Amino acid sequence: MTYLVRDRLLGFGDDYWIEDEQGRKAFLVDGKAMRLRDTFELKDPRGRVLIDFHKKMLALRDTMVVERDGEPLATIRRKRLSLLRNHYRVALADGSELDVSGKVLDREFVVEYDGELLAHISRRWLRVRETYGVDVVREDADPALLIAVAVCVIHLAEKEREDD
What pLDDT is stored for residue 130 in this prediction? Predict the structure, then answer.
């Protein structure tokens, strides 16, 4: 299943819809602008919060924390050594890890688990400006989590570019 995500142009605090392949609203990314840290909620079309993700306040490297129903789900941070491509590690609460690699700022990257492709994020196959696709490859994968991971790594990469 492929989801279409409009790129945020104005920064956090913006709300934007993620649509499915048929153009139906599937998820809402709700940016919380009046918080001390960058905070987002991923909601279903009825407004129910599915996933909450926010920047960790006290961390040596920029880190995003992903929670579901108030319980930790994942921690996302950039890997230390990554020269040509961006590499992020997603440490899941169950002890397993997802690997995110590619050109994040170009919206051309993949999410893998143990070398197996879970999702491919790309704007190459789309004709709509400022839009990228999140193609969830495995049927048993959690699309809300994979979309949250994509939004988080893009947010972290953009923050890092701003700081440079």
Answer: 74
- pLDDT tens for 9-63 read 445 456 888 999 899 999 998 887 544 457 889 999 999 999 999 887 655 568 8
Measured CA to CA, the distance from residue 18 to residue 42 in angstroms comes to 10
CATH class held by domain 2-163 = mainly beta
Q: Which two tokens stand for residue 162?
A: 């701003």
Nearest-angstrom CA–CA distance, 12 and 125: 26
Query: Phi/psi of residue 158, each to 5°?
Result: -70, -40
pLDDT at 136 over 70: yes
Q: Quick one: how far is CA 145 from the chain centroid?
A: 8
- Does position 110 have pLDDT exceeding 50, yes or no? yes
Residues 134-140: contacts with CB under 8 Å, at least 24 apart: 134/2, 134/3, 134/5, 134/18, 135/1, 135/2, 135/3, 136/1, 136/2, 136/3
Domain residue ranges of the chain, discontinuous segments joined by +: 2-163
Chain center to CA of 152: 4
Find out whether 39 and 32 touch, Cβ atoms under 8 Å. Answer: yes
